[in-house]
Design a protein that fits this description.
Blueprint lengths: L1 E5 L9 E8 L2 E7 L12 E7 L2 E8 L2 E8 L9 E5 L33 E6 L5 H13 L4 E2 L1 H4 L6 H10 L1 E8 L6 H15 L6 E6 L18 E2 L3 H13 L1
Parallel strand pairs: 8-9, 8-10, 10-11, 11-12
Antiparallel strand pairs: 1-2, 2-3, 4-5, 4-7, 5-6
Length: 248
């Protein structure tokens, strides 16, 4: 993970603050500050903080403070955290060199990178979000993700609790699809049971909150607010999320 500034052009007097991550030897941009940063000629104070995918960078240059925040799906999910800070540290590069490095590339579709399960994800949602979740399912399928969705898996005459239990048991991840309306009884029952077993270490299925188009973090159910969430409306974040699902 990197937090840095760089000018747009060689002659520019201001720089642009950016977040990026190195993935398989390639620097992938995550976010950049829209306001240009004017660094001081002396020391500048850089701070980088990250916790479960939430990143915050701060630059203090003379009497100005610049702040950049972002959600980064490239870093580990809940359970991993870190904090890196530099205070008044002068850095002088006396010499440097560059060399080409060849890194092994792991195929995202490698069978060894994905657990052997019938479904990659179980889509948990409220009745009001049904159509939006169908669109989400199509986007996941386009990216190569297999999914369990009630409208496709529960046929007339099927036992609903039994089919849901089968879907949960055969899925690696449960995506708690969060809209801007309260969670219904069935949705709470689905993720509540999995969450209890997950916390007790009795289930390998992990719950990931996914914000739908009009949802905000405040709409995430209280029981799931400690988890790293994904925004389906953020194209870059969602594409990286699919890569995460394919490789874990």
């Amino acid at each position: 993970m990197t937090f840095y500034t760089a000018p747009q052009g060689a002659a520019d007097e201001t720089t642009v603050a950016r977040f990026g991550v190195f993935r398989e030897g390639t620097l992938i941009p995550v976010a950049q500050l829209q306001e240009p940063v004017r660094l001081a000629r002396g020391y500048n104070h850089f701070t980088l903080e990250f916790f479960s995918g939430r990143m915050r960078g701060e630059i203090r240059a003379e009497d100005r403070t610049y702040e950049l925040t972002a959600t980064c799906p490239h870093v580990p999910f809940a359970g991993y955290s870190g904090l890196v800070k530099f205070y008044g540290a002068g850095v002088l590069a006396k010499s440097w060199s560059m060399e080409q490095t060849v890194l092994p590339i792991v195929s995202a579709n490698s069978v060894t990178a994905r657990k052997r399960a019938k479904w990659d994800v179980f889509l948990c949602h409220t009745t009001g979000a049904k159509e939006e979740v169908k669109e989400l399912a199509r986007a996941l399928a386009k990216g190569g993700i297999t999914y369990w969705l009630d409208s496709e898996q529960i046929m007339p005459g099927d036992s609903v609790p039994e089919k849901i239990d089968e879907g949960l048991s055969d899925s690696r991840f449960l995506l708690a699809c969060v809209g801007d309306s309260p969670q219904g009884k069935w949705a709470r029952t689905e993720y509540g049971g999995v969450l209890s077993r997950e916390l007790a270490g009795e289930s390998p299925t992990r719950i990931i909150p996914v914000l739908l188009a009009n949802a905000e973090p405040r709409h995430i159910p209280v029981l799931l607010r400690g988890k790293r969430y994904i925004s389906s409306a953020n194209k870059t974040e969602f594409e990286e999320f699919i890569r995460f699902l394919l490789s874990h």
